[in-house]
Amino acid sequence: MQTAMLRLDSLLHRRKRVVLIVWAALLLAALPFAARQSEDLSSGGFDVPGSQSAAVDAALARFPGVQQAQLAAVLVPEPGATPAQLRAAVDRVAAAAGPVAGVSLPDAARAQAAGRARPGAAVIVALRAEVDEDAATSVAVDLRDRLAVADGPRDGVSTRLVGQGALWAAMQDLSKEDLAKAESAGFPVVLLILLVAFGSLAAAALPLALGLVSVLVTGALIYALSQAMECRSS
Prior knowledge:
Shape: elongated
Distance between the termini: 36 Å
CATH architecture of the domain at 52-170: 2-Layer Sandwich
Largest sheet: 4 strands, antiparallel
Number of helices: 8
Structural class: alpha+beta
Oligomer: single chain
């Protein structure tokens, strides 16, 4: 192993310009795909093949009109919000659900929700989900984005999603936010440790650069794999 590593070191030293060009080309090719690595990832799910619950889900799927997943929007008015603002929020839910495959807002449920608009009272908008609980997470992610749930109240009304799929979609958003905070807080600490260990900024920046390139290339590979097979996110 040591001999092989020494040969590799010698090869890289002799062809360092070629190595740098190859890595630069690889990085440029990976950049546009790394940002899209989670577009086609599905939720992990909790089904166990061969279990009784899986048999029940398979049996329910054979009956037309049976809704396996439960999704609903809850409209919470801010102080002073009017019934007209609540009805407008119901319309926003209908508009957001329209382009999302596997979910819809039936006219009867829409009219019922609009009729319940009262000052100071929350309104539950029952959505029609035509997917199972696993796929409901991806549906809920799209709905959260279209409704801008994370942005807070809009026109005096806060919109929230409820249901198992909505719960896991919200947890995914929280995980991403926590990861971003951890990375922003940990990066200066790691850089400081590397500066103390290596004694120069150039030497300390090299491991960080290699880590960044590895993350980007891995993200691009995940995107490529998701185009060819079913990939699940945790």
